[in-house]
Amino acid sequence: ADEPLKPVRPTLTLSKQKPTGPPEEEPEPAQTEAPKVPPTKLKGIGLKGKLMFFLLVPLMLGLAIGAFFSLKHMVGLSGLITEESSRIVTQMAERQIAEHARAVALQAGLYLLSHPELKRGRFQKDAELKKIAVQKVGSTGYTALHAVPDKNGIWRNWAHANPKIVGIDMSTLKKPMGKAFHGFWRVFSAGKDGKESSGYYTWQDADGRFRDKFMVCAPVKGTPYYVASTTYLDEFTRPVEKLKARSQKTAKRVRNINAGVMLGTIILIGLIVFFYGRKVTGDIRRLSEVADRISIGELDAEIDVKSKDEIGELAEAISRMQDSLRLSIERLRHRH
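Given the sequence above, the corresponding structure tokens read:
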């Protein structure tokens, strides 16, 4: 029964113990002969890629959506302000033109009633009446004096800034005015029976351009005459149009600034995430390599991670595991 125990002795004298060297040199051959573990390949997106994706993409979307609605609101507010300003200025201009027509009609009525001998054919040549009846409205507008239709239904102008129009049948303007005549005639002919008329029409200016004009025809009380006060409305709304152009430039400038800030923020955060992610993944990769080396017996592998966060705690845990394995192996050696 004692002889079967004899084979135990050969097993104690391992091939590694046959050399004359001390038993403490056993780990060195094991380390030199241990195969190197190849680096582990990632099975999916790395931590750095996930940090870049899950931080940058939501940030870009948030900034883009915020900038879009901010710009949209600003443009809408700017448009609303300019439209409201244009409407208010237009209403003020219309009232001013109407008040001018009424004031001139009142002055002309007083003059005509005080000069009953003055015939309509002499209105244009009467300097005092012409000074009253033909006045400037705005920069290019004017007032004019015309009569209601005569017994033949003809409308004639008797005091005008353009002498060629004085005394002619106003309906003959249809040919030179073309399509614009209808709008003019609608406002012009509506002033009769003591009723005031007003409205917009298109008129060809001296440069040959057709522009919108606003006209008010006010009755000269006690006479068969009317005073027409008319001017290009863009003379009043031009400042608003300039304000609109400036607001559009401002909106464009703010849009470019927002885009620049958004792009700069994305680049800055992207760089921060990139370098921080590279540091984190580098620490994790080094810990993974150390763990692989420990798994093949390299218990003296150095853990070079100085982080003070959770990764640092993981490094300390691996270091404690390394020490525990080393002590366990030493105890086993001493036991045998």
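The helical segments are 8-12, 27-33, 47-114, 127-133, 174-177, 181-188, 234-295, 310-335. Try to locate this feature in the token string yourself.
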